[in-house]
Design goal:
This protein has ten helices and three strands, in the order H-H-H-H-H-H-H-H-E-E-H-E-H. By secondary structure, the chain is mostly helical. A hairpin with a 3-residue loop joins strand 1 and strand 2 (178-181).
């Protein structure tokens, strides 16, 4: 117990010393950066961690770091994103998202556009992960819509899942509400079905099509076509174009 009290006293003494030094307006940027980093670590070691102060000082730390690098105080002018991300590790997911958004604005301010784009990828993944917290119908919809935007791999996987789902759902008499008219293109039934679905998607053959056989079939076909136009044609192709631009 006595050792714990002595340790806390030493931590408080160091904290007060750092706080006093950071009040100096003429403190060199590199020294300010080091002191801020140390002060945050000291606060985290405290028994009663002042989370709001740590969050505020981390924002200042990120700002000072970007300003210091931009001014060439380290002898180089390249932002180390791994260093910035390491500052965010102690925080909850929501706070990390807020700090990433703040950091992106700072990077843009100093015209570190490529670094801001890289950070945007991290931010998208963090926001996506946050959707799994207190999940509901609205968040499930957002998960489905957001997943393809995370990267080219995720986009391709989404297209594959969509295609396989369509293949599984379309039969010669789908659930008694739709008729899938196919052409005999190859002898293997499974391969023939897969090719016919592909031909249907890209409308390669006018004789391959889906025809409703009930009022519910017409409703289902109308909803499916609307989803295809809005989601697949507009959204996914936009995402594909965006990812291909980023890969250049």
């Amino acid at each position: 117990m006595q050792f714990s009290i002595q340790m806390e006293d030493r931590i408080n003494a160091l904290r007060l010393k750092l706080e006093a030094r950071l009040q100096k307006e003429d403190l060199p940027p590199v020294k300010r950066l080091n002191d801020l980093n140390l002060l945050i670590q000291v606060r985290q070691m405290s028994i009663n961690k002042p989370d709001k102060l740590i969050y505020k000082e981390t924002k200042e730390l990120i700002s000072v770091y970007c300003e210091t690098v931009e001014a060439g105080k380290f002898g180089y002018d390249k932002i180390n994103l791994n260093k910035i991300l390491s500052y965010l590790n102690p925080f909850e997911l929501d706070q990390q998202i807020a700090l990433l958004s703040y950091t992106k604005r700072i990077l843009t301010k100093y015209q570190y556009f490529s670094e801001a784009d890289e950070l945007e990828k991290v931010l998208k993944k963090k926001r996506f992960n946050s959707l799994f917290k207190d999940i509901n119908v609205k968040k499930i919809t957002l998960i489905i819509l957001t997943y393809p935007s995370l990267g080219l791999k995720q986009l391709i996987l989404t297209l594959i899942v969509f295609y396989l789902t369509l293949c599984a759902g379309l039969t010669e008499s789908s659930f008694g509400v739709l008729i899938f008219e196919k052409q005999e293109l190859v002898e293997n039934n499974l391969l023939n079905h897969l090719i016919n679905v592909l031909a249907l998607i890209f409308q390669l053959d006018s004789e391959i099509g889906v025809h409703p056989i009930s009022w519910f079939g017409y409703l289902l076909a109308a909803i499916a076509k609307s989803i295809f136009i809005i989601f697949i044609i507009n959204y996914l192709i936009q995402q594909l174009s965006k990812h291909l631009d980023l890969e250049k």
